[in-house]
Each structure stands twice: as C-alpha cells, then as structure tokens.
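Regression test case RT-17, inverse folding.

Input:
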C-alpha cells in the first residue's frame, strides 16, 4: 500500500524574492504538485528559482472541489505544496478547507515558517505587540465597516488588518470618523524598494494618501493602536498597588492580581501600567 504523502504549507515572498527560505525551495522542487492561488502569478516565482514542479490552481472559487482531488493524490503518495500569491497561505488566503480535509482524513500537514505581511508590518510599526488581533479585511460596505470599527472603541491592544488600494482612503476616513485620533500606522510595499510606513493620527495618514495618487497604490497593512485607558478611571489605590506589585512581578501578572482584588478589568489595568511607564 502506498504511504500517505504530506501536504506542505509553504510561504512565499511578499516582495523581495531573497526572502524565500532554502527549505521552501527544496520542498517546492521535491513535491509532486504545487497548488497555487494563481498559477500564472506563481509561474514567475517558480521560473526564477528553476522549479519545474507541476502546478494546479486552488482558489476561493474551486477550493472545495480541489481539496477532494488533492486529498486523493496525497493518499496515493503524491506530496503537495500549497502556496498563495504572496506570504503565508491561509492568512486571508485560500487553504483552510484543504487543510481541514487533510486533518480529518489523517493526512500529514507540515507548515513551513516564512513571510507574512501582517507580522512583518506589526514588528516594525512601533505599536504594542505583546497582544494583538488580526482582523483580515474589513467589510467592503461603509456601514458594515463602521460597525466593525466600533468594536475597537474600547479595545486595549493593537488591531491589524489588510486593505486594498481602492479602499484605503475610505477606510482611513472611517477610522477617523469612528475612532477619532487614535494612533494609526499603515505599511505598504513591504520588503520592496519603496517600502513605506506612515504613522500618526488618521488625519496624518489621510494627508499622506491625498498628497500623491501613487501613495494609494499597493497592498496595505493597517494597524490601529490600543484605546488609551485613563488612570483617572481606575481607583488611585489600585494604581498604587499595581505599581508596588510591579517591583516584584511582571506587569501582566500584577494587573491580574489587582483586577481580581478590585473587581476591575485586567486589560485596562495592564494598559494603564504600560501608559504610566512611557
């Protein structure tokens, strides 16, 4: 009986081709099939590294059918690598259905580490990174987008999402409308020659986007800073205890202790502790 082969999740560069790993190249050369979001787009990458492996498409419109076919190939001993147009597959890209099917059918799945626009942008943003949430893409329709942004009003950690160039100005305008002058960072052209980070208020970002039509081109990562927690909203004795406990334990643990003692929100105390250190 043929041994079941492995499905490999292979990240590809988000801009600079030198960011692909030696292991990723090796896997792409050795598997029987490469499932690509857009085979024409991926052909340029594969040709650059002289990878001649057979390809087939796997995108949001055919994933259900392709997943069944690929599972059969894997069970017949044909290894498969899954790639997206850029970055790590499944992160706002197709692949979830295939991976779930493989797990359900006992097919091994191995994920390689590699490029991801959200993590790359966040790490250089200057926003808090100890806790964050990735929201994918915001809704396209304005009212739904504003509703989604309203959920960030009291969020005390960083939010990261992607945005398309045709919607970036509208989205930042909605951020200003819903969240006011919250700290904001956008990143575009990551790892490329014209990589750009713009930080400041929503108005600062709007001014940048409107200054030149070229500024609205490219794929964007938008990062919204946490809501600022006023120490005035926290009893002074709670803040005093927090500062005292921080001399003996990490802030996160101290915030949990004080929150339990005074029946306060741990995240609010944690953010207040961070703010007091600045």
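Golden output:
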């Amino acid at each position: 009986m043929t041994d079941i082969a492995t499905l490999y999740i292979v990240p590809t560069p988000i801009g600079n081709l030198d960011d692909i790993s030696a292991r990723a190249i090796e896997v792409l050369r050795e598997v029987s099939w490469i499932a690509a979001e857009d085979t024409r787009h991926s052909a340029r990458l594969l040709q650059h590294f002289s990878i001649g492996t057979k390809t087939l498409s796997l995108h949001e419109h055919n994933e259900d059918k392709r997943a069944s076919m690929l599972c059969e190939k894997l069970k017949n001993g044909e290894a498969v690598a899954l790639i997206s147009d850029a970055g790590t597959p499944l992160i706002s890209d197709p692949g979830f259905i295939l991976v779930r099917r493989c797990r359900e059918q006992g097919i091994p799945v191995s994920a390689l580490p590699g490029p991801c626009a959200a993590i790359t942008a966040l790490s250089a943003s200057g926003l808090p990174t100890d806790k964050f949430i990735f929201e994918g893409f915001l809704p396209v329709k304005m009212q739904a987008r504003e509703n989604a942004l309203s959920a960030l009003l009291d969020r005390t950690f960083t939010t990261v999402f992607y945005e398309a160039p045709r919607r970036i100005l509208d989205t930042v305008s909605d951020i200003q409308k819903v969240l006011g002058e919250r700290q904001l960072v956008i990143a575009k052209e990551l790892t490329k020659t014209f990589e750009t980070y713009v930080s400041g208020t929503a108005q600062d970002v709007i001014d940048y986007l409107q200054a030149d039509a070229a500024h609205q081109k490219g794929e964007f990562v938008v990062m919204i800073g946490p809501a600022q927690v006023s120490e005035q909203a926290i009893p002074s004795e709670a803040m005093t205890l927090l500062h005292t406990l921080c001399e003996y334990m990490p802030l996160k643990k101290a915030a949990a202790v004080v929150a339990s003692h005074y029946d306060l929100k741990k995240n609010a105390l944690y953010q207040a502790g961070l703010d007091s250190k600045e």
